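Incident review: delayed structure delivery

Summary: a single-chain prediction request sat in the queue longer than the usual turnaround. Root cause was a stuck worker, restarted by the on-call engineer. No data loss occurred. The affected request and its eventual output are reproduced below so the record is complete for anyone auditing the incident later.

Affected input:
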Amino acid sequence: MNMGNEYEIETIGDWNPELRFELDEAVSLFHKEVIRIEDRAHLPKPPIEMIGIVCGVLTLNDEIEVIVRFSDGLEQLCKTEFCGDFILVEKACLDG
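Output delivered after worker restart:
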């Protein structure tokens, strides 16, 4: 049974497992609106149910993570997940 190269993984965004938040960087994201990359077609004015708000920061095993509140729940994200899977709404609108 060969389990080596059977699957190809495609990533979107800046997916770098070495990325880590600095505390001041994570705190600067408080109250920022984000959406998932797959929802970017809805920019510049995404529906409210697609918008998440950065509402917290925590340290877990020497890694700083942000908490994002969506209408259907919370997501806890390290910087790799945040940069690889999410877009800041204000930055996306400015980059237009």
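Verification: Residues 23-95 form one domain.
Action items: add queue-age alerting; document worker restart procedure.
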